[in-house]
Amino acid sequence: MELFIRDHRECDPKKCTARKLLDEGIAEKLLKDIGLGKGGIYLTPLAEKAISPEDKNLAEDGGIRAIDCTWTEADEKIPEYENGRALPYLVAVNPINYGKPFQLTTAEALAAALFILGEEDQAKEVMSKFSWGEHFFEMNENPLKDYREAEDSSEVVEIQKEYMG
Questions:
Q1: What angle do CA 93, 97, 102 make, to 5 degrees?
Q2: Which has the least CB within 10 A, 5, 29, 114, 121?
Q3: Domain extent for 27
């Protein structure tokens, strides 16, 4: 699946997972936010619908889009589109937010989306660029597999509730 990133260039370039994916040619850079709404799905914490396996055809047709910006200001920077999808409960393993739920890097978010959509090999390729990458799948093995087995967004949300306790 094609991966796209809209980079607002707000993080330390040496720690930015989005830039690493762009530099490695794993993702293509979107120059304007308008590119987020053109086909495929885009990952946003503001979406009302969770990503689920039912989104696979949409992602195959237009890719997966992610936005890399400061999440505390996300509501001001992220446009709303019908094809926006939120990631369900997962725990970050990146060095900055290790162990914090919902605090994924752009690379973790893209890898999680790929895994949920059944693209496990590509998800692992994305995370192979980081020394802590494999640990993301170890830490989130059960929820990722359960989300991948869900039929739709509402089932993903129900599974998420179980993990959140």
A1: 80
A2: 121
A3: 3-164
